[in-house]
Design brief:
Length: 582
């Protein structure tokens, strides 16, 4: 019996799929925080301030995108590396990288405050806030400019918390942002009549409270990452930027594109220019809902893939890509249909002037056809970034978020204004999906992953349901493995001993929750004269190496840790994870 063939045929991907869908659910909730906050701001500003207020919030969007550029480029780039280190159980180096990215983020945040103080008028002019929009824009943006550290550090910590296995807390932080922003929006704008400055103040305060929630993760006993600062190395900064550029650059490209598109709409729209900029703001706000789902899908994929990359589990990485693409296609189709069917309702929902509604209705319907392509492109880019194909991810981001947007946008907006803008997104995202298909056909990630993350030597892995009957199945499988690999009797005994005792302890002390199926995955790897044992289980809130078992069970666990050359036990993703070298 060939063990490599046997393990690939027998092992299923329950752990990979369950991890991805868990992180996807909470990742979407987390991504929706900023989306819903922006949605609420646009809704209240449109209805309480009018189309000019909507135009101002749209003009200010590049500022938020710049903060996302810094925060997500650093956060995603660092956490691709951190995830791999956690996957290989190197917690010390993972914390070094985490402390380094925090120091870099703080430094950039402080630098962002300087233009807010010294170059405020120049920045407002650069954003296109002139003439009748200047006063409103100055009120809205002065608060946003001074809140740069809050937004940048929120992005970094949100990604880091998810990588450290706490996507629920990241989602909770988003919920805090949403509820606080909504409450303060109503208080500041409706009750206290603070106008548009109330909208920006409520958003910044809400983001600050969300940041505090994220920081609470690092006080938990089970967190592997801890807050701290170290002097960053230039090599680390370069690696973080390269690893995160494919995802983070999309935000600055979007910001630059929005600047150009706003100016083109004001130029070619003539007396209807302000209205068309307001319509663009509505389209952008609507698009943030599907984009939040795609962002959650990409973030979940990046986190889980980086962990499995550290474990050199290429099969799970490929399975996760398929799950991410499935989620993107389903979500993109649903959102596209909603936009087509309810375009008029969406156009009127944000308080646009009646004269702008016809522009918005037709533009929204055209834009709807781009949504499913956007989902595929975002998931593909996140996956390429996570597995180390940073140049490919960067090329994809530059192509679809910047170069093609400017080329098609300049031509089509000049001819058809807001309709041309919507058509630009359809053409660019369609070409991006064609690029993904070409890469898949001629430079597929499958052989790349298999070559880069394969394990040298014999490998055996199988999943087992957690109940007493599995002990016999595990024993039989391990007997076959030890015989074929010619493992010594002493090492063979210890391999059986570890697997069976861990399973018995989980059955005795860990199965407190009813109704959910529990599994344990046993993986054995040959490494010259050593053997690496990785045992993963999905039993929640139970650590067999830190339990209140009886004296005999605790004695057995101490014996295992004493006899092993190396031992580590931690909770990653949604699993408990034992790593032993014998």
């Amino acid at each position: 019996m060939n063990i490599m063939t046997y393990s690939k045929e027998m092992v299923d991907l329950k752990f990979a799929k369950s991890a991805y869908w868990n992180f996807l659910l909470w990742g979407i909730c987390s991504s929706l925080g900023m989306t819903i906050s922006t949605f609420v701001d646009a809704l209240l500003v449109g209805n309480l301030v009018g189309s000019q207020g909507l135009a101002v919030t749209n003009l200010s969007t590049p500022v938020f995108l710049a903060y996302a550029l810094f925060g997500l480029t650093l956060g995603v780039g660092a956490n691709v590396y951190i995830g791999r280190l956690l996957g290989s159980s190197n917690v010390e180096k993972a914390n070094r990288a985490f402390h380094s990215v925090l120091a870099i983020g703080l430094g950039i945040s402080i630098c962002c405050l300087i233009p807010a103080v010294l170059l405020r008028k120049e920045l407002l002019g650069f954003l296109g806030a002139g003439g009748e929009l200047y006063s409103l824009a100055e009120q809205y943006l002065i608060v946003v400019f001074c809140s740069a550290p809050v937004f940048i550090m929120y992005h970094i910590l949100s990604v880091s918390v998810r990588t450290d296995g706490d996507p629920k807390l990241a989602a909770s932080a988003s919920a805090v942002v949403i509820l606080t922003n909504l409450t303060l929006d109503i208080l500041f704008m409706k009750v206290l009549n603070r106008g548009i400055i109330g909208a920006s103040s409520s958003l910044c305060i809400a983001e600050g409270l969300g940041l505090i929630v994220l920081m609470s993760h690092f006080l938990k006993k089970q967190s592997l990452l801890r807050l701290g600062l170290v002097t960053p190395r230039m090599k680390e900064l370069r690696n973080f930027v390269v690893n995160g550029f494919g995802v983070g650059s999309a935000y600055i490209f979007q910001g630059l594109v929005m600047l150009v598109f706003n100016m083109l709409l004001l130029l070619y729209g003539k007396e209807q220019g302000v209205l068309q900029v307001a319509v663009f703001g509505v389209i952008y706000t609507i698009s943030m809902a599907p984009f939040a789902v795609f962002d959650g899908a990409g973030n979940a994929l990046a986190v889980v893939t980086s962990i499995f990359a550290g474990e050199r589990d290429s099969e799970s990485m490929i399975a996760i890509l398929r799950q991410g693409m499935k989620a993107a296609v389903i979500a993109g189709g649903i959102f596209g249909i909603i936009c087509i069917l309810f375009a008029k309702n969406l156009a009127g929902f944000f308080g646009l002037d009646l004269a702008a509604v016809p522009y918005a209705e037709s533009a929204i319907r055209i834009f709807a056809f781009s949504i499913i392509f956007t989902g595929i492109n975002m998931v593909a880019t996140a996956f390429w970034q996570a597995i180390g194909r940073a140049k490919l991810a960067g090329a994809m981001s530059t192509l679809r978020n910047f170069l093609l947007m400017l080329i098609f946008g300049s031509l089509l907006i000049a001819r058809w204004q807001i309709k041309g803008l919507a058509l630009t997104y359809v053409l660019v995202e369609g070409i991006g999906t064609l690029f993904v298909a070409i890469v898949h056909k001629y430079q597929s990630s499958y052989p790349y992953i298999t070559e880069k993350y394969h394990v040298v030597g014999h490998v055996f892995e199988n999943n087992y349901p957690i109940h007493a009957e599995s002990v016999e199945h595990i024993s039989s499988d391990l007997d076959s493995v030890c015989e074929e690999w010619e493992i010594s009797p002493k090492q063979s005994f210890f391999i059986h001993f570890i697997a069976e005792e861990l399973l018995f302890n989980i059955i005795k002390f860990g199965l407190r929750e009813k109704g959910e199926k529990r599994y344990v995955a046993i993986k054995l790897l040959e490494n010259e004269d050593e053997y690496i044992i990785r045992i993963r289980d999905n039993v929640h809130t139970y650590n067999p190496f830190d339990s209140s078992g009886d004296e005999i069970d605790n004695g057995v666990l101490k014996l295992i840790t004493k006899k092993a050359k190396y031992y580590y036990y931690q909770r990653k993703l949604i699993f408990n994870y034992l790593y032993l070298i014998i």
